[in-house]
Amino acid sequence: MNIRYILTLPLLLLSLGLLLGCEQEPPKTTLTGKAESQMPAFSFPNLEGKQQASGQWDGKVLVVNYWATWCPPCRKEMPLFIETQKNYDEKGVQFVGIAIDDPDMVQDFVDVYDINFPILIGNTKAVELSNRMGNRFDSLPFTAIFDRQGKTRFIQAGEVHREVLEKELLPLL
């Protein structure tokens, strides 16, 4: 048997497998880890340096999103979150962003995108909190949705798409 054929066949099969795998639609939702059943209490500074405690949003449907300015999927989902906050604010939905990033970069991002919900500055304790919320792989973005009683209703690592967000939020209103 020809040596060129022996070397080429495995590469051809590998390429074919990768090509076929790329044509499949990825899953819409990626759940990670086991979340605590109730939202853990937290407090982080906002961009002005004032501590913001999670208790101030008691009784609301709370969407907590961990993100960073350097994270492409985080940047991509932000306009959806801004729009959803605007559309559902009066129905008791509250988004809270926890940025794992440099405060100056975050401020620039907030100014450009005109973000209409609280942005807090996270640290190592924020990463630990995201783990308690179910983010066992320290993924960004990571989103958790809590009902009005603070019970965990949804967690997702990776970008949240409109269909998924609406499917998870609407029953909680």
Automatic annotation (TrEMBL):
Alphabetized Gene3D superfamilies for the sequence: Glutaredoxin
SUPFAM superfamilies noted in UniProt: Thioredoxin-like (SSF52833)
Keyword line: Cytochrome c-type biogenesis, Redox-active center
One GO MF term: disulfide oxidoreductase activity
One Pfam match: Redoxin
Annotated InterPro entries: Redoxin, Thioredoxin-like_sf, Thioredoxin_CS, Thioredoxin_domain, Thioredoxin_ResA/DsbE_sf
Boundaries of every Thioredoxin domain copy: 33-173
Subcellular location: Cell envelope
GO cellular component: cell envelope
Superkingdom of the organism of origin: Bacteria
Protein name: TlpA family protein disulfide reductase
Organism this protein belongs to: Sedimenticola selenatireducens
Lineage of producing organism: Bacteria, Pseudomonadati, Pseudomonadota, Gammaproteobacteria, Chromatiales
